[in-house]
Amino acid sequence: MKPIGKYIIINKISEQVKTDSGLILSDDEATTFRYKKAEVVKVGTEVTAIADGDIIYYDRNTGHTMIIDETTYSVITERDVVVVDSPCEDSAYTSDKPCQCN
User: Cα–Cα–Cα angle for 69, 70, 75, nearest 5°?
Assistant: First the structure.
């Protein structure tokens, strides 16, 4: 599978949100949070700031769900991503260069 253009294929990451009073909210209950967490499966041919395997935060009101080989993915565009949490702490890391921190 290879997305084209600025499209990004992601796997959503389910997060538990704990309220100030100690209640744990499911993803469905945590609808007040605009941004969701996901792992990048594959980036499109024109995506420059994000790499396969990155952890990202994206606008939950965007994207579409699709099933490929019985696996459910979401498809978003590069402009839907607001934060990239790269797998590398090296400040020189970019998506054009593999992580060298190991």
Answer: 80
- Is there a contact between 38 and 56 (Cβ–Cβ < 8 Å)? yes
Distance CA 102, CA 27 (A): 33
14-50 pLDDT, tens digit each: 877 777 888 877 666 556 678 999 999 999 999 999 9
At 78 the three-state DSSP class reads: helix
Give the residue ranges of DSSP H helices in 7-96.
Answer: none
Q: Name the amino acid, one letter, at 22.
A: G
Which architecture, in CATH terms, is 7-85? Roll (2.30)
Q: Where residue 100 falls among pLDDT bands split at 50, 70, 90? A: very low
**Which token pair is 10?**
């992601």
Alpha carbons within 13 angstroms on the beta-carbon side of residue 39 total: 7
